[in-house]
Amino acid sequence: MNSNKLLLLLLIVLLSVSYSLAVVVAQQGGNIPNAVTSNNRNKKDLQAAAEELQYSSIFRNGAGTIANEGTVRIDMQGVFTQNGQRWHNLQGQINGIKNKPSTIAHVQVAENAMTDNKAQQTQLTNIVIGAMMDSFNSGRSYSVLDNGGRAGL
User: Fold this and answer.
1) Which residues contact 30 (CB under 8 A, 6 or more apart)?
2) N or C, which terminus of the chain has less Cβ within 10 Å?
3) What is the pLDDT of residues 10-39, one digit of tens each?
4) Distance between CA 32 and CA 137 in Å, rounded?
5) Spatial distance between the Cα atoms of 135 and 130, rounded to a whole number of angstroms
């Protein structure tokens, strides 16, 4: 086998291994900024609102409500850049609170987790839903990202 074919084969194997090692994960961070006390009704409504989340709404660029159920809504607060990575800032908030904090859950989702694969989009959405509920239960923010450092799944 000539060296070019061997090099190409090695490159294909390395790419396959790196692809299989890249995993979307939810990582716990610090306390939720401006968190407020909530109750079991808020938890139930947050779960229902989180289950309404769609992949496309997680990665939309405009701020606004992306899910709403009973006492709770999930807002996409906007996009920010940190250490060269773009993040989508999702917050579970109690409805009806004006001009003061209302956040009960916080998840930021890195654009490096974006994908065109429908099955992986479903997986990522489920990870975001789980992170939203983990955030509520722990009082901590969560980051969802592709830990393989690739641009997409």
Assistant:
1) 140, 141
2) N
3) 656 555 544 444 588 999 999 999 999 999
4) 11
5) 8
Residue 21 token pair = 């090692």
Q: Are 50 and 133 in contact (CB under 8 A)?
A: yes
pLDDT digits (tens, 9 = 90+) for 59-115: 999 999 999 999 999 999 999 999 999 999 999 999 999 889 999 999 999 999 999
- Is this structure's pTM higher than 0.70? yes
3-state SS, one letter per residue, for the chain: CCHHHHHHHHHHHHHHHHHHHCCEEEEEEEECCCECCCCHHHHHHHHHHHHCCCHHHHCCCCCEEEEEECCEEEEEEEEEEECCEEEEEEEEEECCCCCCCCEEEEEEEEHHHCCCCHHHHHHHHHHHHHHHHHHHHHCEEEEEEECCCCCCC
> Which residue type does 10 have?
L
Helices 40-51 and 118-138: angle between axes, nearest 10 degrees: 170
